[in-house]
From TrEMBL:
This is Coproporphyrinogen-III oxidase. It catalyses: coproporphyrinogen III + 2 S-adenosyl-L-methionine = protoporphyrinogen IX + 2 5'-deoxyadenosine + 2 L-methionine + 2 CO2. Pfam families: HemN_C, Radical_SAM. Pathway: Porphyrin-containing compound metabolism; protoporphyrin-IX biosynthesis; protoporphyrinogen-IX from coproporphyrinogen-III (AdoMet route): step 1/1. It comes from Terasakiispira papahanaumokuakeensis.
Length: 465
């Protein structure tokens, strides 16, 4: 049986233009627009208690929304301040939320994955970071053998001499470094001046300290970028050699994200130029030896993401691609989104509203969703396609106790156009995404999205490419 060739990417300009519509990124299914306010904090409490029966390991996500400086491209939920003392009330509420979680969760369940995101988590002082991690260890069963995936997002401008040694001491073993672009004019236009030497120092020190996976974030579509400039950044990054790369498309939405109003729209590259940048970036990174995991992600062949994809263990959640499909994800802090059993839960976006709820001993749940059996089946199909670029209908049907061809009869008819366009092959009851289809995997997944097919409300999403 032929399996998808994960080493090849086939760039078909006409197909890319035809299929480059708006659609979900499928960090969850159903996607966030389906979450609703009818899901209450009491529903969350029940989901937490019920999850203990599974004995599943845990993943902890902490949202730390503080930044010393605002990057103009940013669409994250953050608070700009230079005073770390302003973090104190927020940290106290993070710890209080952990206490509330610990009252419902079997705290002996192993924490296999932990992530601090933001904002800029290293904005916290050394003492504050130590206090937060110590409080976490007191309440949850963190691994002490350095075999969990404990990661943190870094802004090199906020990494002092003691930061990385402290993080390693606290148990972090993976870092994600925000680079975005190495061109000075681009950096000035986005209010993030960060010379290569600064990122290089963080990379070198992380390696020396034994961090086992280092990710770089890059963004294409920023002001003053063009193919030549971004190619130069890419060559420098390849020379630096991070273990993973995320190459994100900048979405300019100044009506939604106030900092983006500081960007001069006339300085942004055209849609055609962005496609040239993306085509070159994918081809160049694959030539340099990186594996195209999917969507925006690349990894070296020996990285755990690449290994998980080859072994059929790759998963996708709110943090992107991950190797921990078995974990219940507890999300802590303002705006964070968790997944506990067959439920999704999101906290208040506003830090003050979040703190008010937690201060009243109520979870800060603003909305959520309990999945139906159909949701669970479709989520599994989408996850298999977006992670592994194939779906065996016979095996899938047995796993979910369905007749695959009957259950997805309408979807298989709609996929015929993808087959005719060379994005997908039918091999008996197996769907195999072609090298051309890998770039447009979101379009294939959209066929299985029952909510999208009902509403066709794609304006809530970014473009596929």
């Amino acid at each position: 049986m032929k399996h998808p060739d994960l080493t090849r990417i086939d760039w078909q300009p006409e197909l890319i233009k035809r299929y480059d519509l708006a659609g979900p990124r499928y960090t969850s299914y159903p996607t966030a627009p389906q979450f609703h306010s009818g899901f209450t904090e009491q529903d969350y409490r029940q989901a937490l208690s019920e999850s203990n029966a599974s004995g599943a390991p845990l993943s902890l996500y902490f949202h730390i929304p503080f930044c010393a400086k605002i990057c103009f491209y940013c669409g994250c939920n953050k608070i700009a301040t230079k005073d770390t003392r302003k973090c104190e009330p927020y940290l106290a509420h993070l710890i209080q939320e952990m206490d509330m979680l610990a009252a419902h969760i079997d705290t002996q369940r192993s924490v296999e994955q932990l992530h601090w995101g933001g904002g800029t988590p290293t904005f916290l002082s050394d003492e504050q970071m130590r206090r937060l991690m110590d409080a976490t260890r007191e309440r949850f069963n963190l691994r002490d053998d350095d075999q969990g995936d404990y990661s943190i997002e870094l802004d090199p401008r906020e990494v002092g001499d003691t930061t990385l040694p402290l993080l390693r001491e606290l148990g972090f073993n993976r870092v994600s470094i925000g680079v975005q672009d190495l061109d000075l004019e681009v950096q000035q236009a986005i209010n993030r001046v960060q010379p290569r030497e600064m990122s290089q120092r963080v990379l070198d020190e992380s390696r020396a300290l034994g961090f086992r996976s280092i990710n770089f974030d890059l963004i294409y579509g920023l002001p003053h970028q063009d193919l030549a400039r971004f190619s130069d950044t890419l060559e420098q990054v390849i020379e630096m050699g991070p273990d993973r790369l995320s190459v994100f498309n900048y979405a300019h939405l100044p009506s939604r994200f106030k900092p983006q109003r500081r960007i001069n729209e006339a300085d942004l590259p055209s849609a055609d130029e962005k496609l040239k940048i993306l085509e070159h970036s994918i081809g160049r990174l694959v030539k340099a030896g990186y594996v195209y995991i999917g969507m925006d992600h690349f990894a070296k062949p020996d990285d755990s993401l690449s290994l998980a994809q080859r072994e059929g263990r790759l998963h996708r959640n709110f943090q992107g691609y991950t190797t921990h499909s078995e974990c219940d994800l507890l999300a802590i802090g303002a705006s964070s989104i968790g997944q506990v059993g067959p439920t999704y839960i999101q906290n208040h976006h506003d830090a003050e509203a979040y703190q008010a709820s937690i201060g009243n001993q109520q979870f800060a749940t603003i909305r959520g969703l309990k999945l139906t059996q159909d949701d669970i089946i479709r989520r599994a199909a989408i996850n298999q396609l977006i992670c592994h670029f194939e779906l065996d209908g016979d095996t899938f049907g047995q796993q979910h106790d369905i007749a695959f061809n009957d259950y997805f009869a309408d979807e298989l008819i709609r996929l015929q156009q993808h087959e005719q366009d060379g994005l997908l092959e039918r091999q008996g009851n197996r769907l195999v995404v072609t090298p051309a289809g890998r770039l447009l995997i979101r379009s294939i997944c959209m066929v299985f999205d029952a909510y999208l097919n009902q509403s066709q409300q794609t304006q809530k999403y970014s473009r596929i490419i």
